[in-house]
Structures are given as C-alpha cells and as structure tokens.
Amino acid sequence: MKKLSHLYLLIVIVLLYFPILYLMFYSFNSAGNMSSFDSFTLEHYISVFTNQRLIVIIINTLAVALISSAAAVLIGLGGALFMYNVKNSTRRILLSINNIMIVSPDVIIGASLLILFTLAGISLGSVSVVLAHIAFSVPIVVLMILPKLYNMNHSLVDAARDLGADYKTIILKVIIPYINPGIIAGFFMALTYSLDDFAVTFFVTGSGFSVLSVEIYAMARRGISLEINAVSTLIFLFVFALVFIYYLLSTHKQLKKEKVL
C-alpha cells in the first residue's frame, strides 16, 4: 500500500511539473522552436533582458505584487483580528463572505471590479491593478492568519491585560509575534497570487500599463516565441525562490521553538 501511494505521488508530481520542465528546457533552444532541440543558447534570456519594454513590465509586475501584498496583509490582519473578537454567529457570516471572493470565478471578479472602477471614475492603469490585486488577496491573507489566532492561548492576552497593557500594546507585543508565521504565509501567498493572476488583471489593465501575465498572453497570441519560455522560466524560478525562503524561515522558527522547549 505504501509503495502504491509513493507511485501515485510520483505520477502526480510528474504530471504537474513535466510541462514546466519541458517549457524550461526549450527556453535554451537555439533553433527557435519547441519541436526539435538544436543546441544550448542563452539568446532568449539575453533578448528578455535587453528588451526595455519587457523590463519595465517586469518592474511593474514586481511593484504591483509587493505593494498589493503589503496592503493586503495590513487589511487582512485587521479583518482577522475583527473576526476573532466578534461573536461566533457573526464570525461565521463574515467568514462566508470572505470565502466568496476565493471561490468566485476570476472572470466575474474582474468584470465586477471593472464596472466598479468605471462607476467610481478610476482610470484603468496601475492604480486599478493594485486595487484589484488587494481585493482578491485580502481573503487569502485572512484565511492564513485566522487559524493562528484560533490556536493562540487566550491566557496570554489576559495576562498582558492584567499587567496593565492597553489594546495597542497587546496587539503589537503579544498577538502579532505569536501569529507572525501566519502573517508571513499570507504575504507570500498574496505575492504569488498577484504574480500569477491573469483573468482579473486583464479586465482592469489600461492601455498604458501592463504586467507580465497580460504581456505573456499578448506575446502568445502573436505566435510562439521562446522569449515566452524564458520569461515563464524566470517567473517560475522567482516564485520557487519565494516558497523556498518561506520554508527556510518557518523551519528556522520551528527549530528555535523546539530548542526553547
């Protein structure tokens, strides 16, 4: 049974990662196609880094992801703390509303935000993209932080209150240090969702502003180019590095806790 489960896991991993590895492999192909590999070359990566427009789009993508993730963490932290302190019945209603944004199709969210921005008089561009990314990132951050609040020993808060700490001090000195892993996880999840999103961004991006997901879609429509492979490889490696850094941080904190215990 154990061997079958390992075999099943191996098959799943191969199915998930083979297309990505195939794409990465042909990003080094000098032949310029994905049908036959001629020889190893870095010309497609050089083309990416010498394309000024693409560099600007990469910077736009990173800026949107970092700004929206940071804002989503602040808003999500406030939302999670509010849900934690309200009655169970109210919390369930708010949690259901929060989850609607996660399970709703991206096309509907994108179209709704487009209508909202049009009615509000917000021009489509960098501001609309950042606001849209904050909107779909906040529910994810809330779900990352809320379980940490549930697992927190409430006697810590009571002890801090008995010692004369005000609400601000309790949040900054007691609650946030305890739920910090959830905050970091929420930030990284929001960051990866922002880098990955296409459907919502496609609706709210103006003609003078673009991010990588929309640009890759436009490049693919013009025809197969191994620049797409190179850009996709760089994005994958960047996200992989983020996940690896988060894994190292969580492992380091877990080891520190075990040493203290």
Notes on the structure:
The chain folds into two domains: 1-41, no CATH class; 51-260, MetI-like (MetI-like fold). Helices cover 82% and strands 0% of the residues. It has eleven helices and no strands. The protein has helices at residues 2-26, 43-50, 52-85, 88-103, 106-120, 126-151, 154-162, 167-196, 199-204, 212-222, 226-260. It starts with a helix and ends with a helix. 25% of the residues are buried.
Question: What descriptors fit this protein?
Answer:
MetI-like fold, 261 residues, globular, 11 helices, mainly alpha, 0% strand
Secondary structure: elements and pairs:
Layout: H1 2-26, H2 43-50, H3 52-85, H4 88-103, H5 106-120, H6 126-151, H7 154-162, H8 167-196, H9 199-204, H10 212-222, H11 226-260
Helix pairs in contact: 1-11, 2-11, 3-6, 3-8, 4-6, 6-8, 7-8, 8-11
What gross morphology would you assign? globular
**Could you name the CATH homologous superfamily of the largest domain?**
MetI-like
Average of per-residue pLDDT values: 85
Largest sheet: none
Amount of beta strand: under 5%
- Assembly type: single chain
- In N-to-C order, the SSE pattern is HHHHHHHHHHH
The number of strands is: 0
CATH architecture of the largest domain: Orthogonal Bundle
Measured as a percent range, the helix fraction is over 70%
Q: What are the segments in which pLDDT stays under 50 over at least 5 consecutive residues?
A: none
In total, how many domains does the architecture comprise? 2
* Radius of gyration, in angstroms, nearest whole number: 22 Å
Computed structural class = mainly alpha
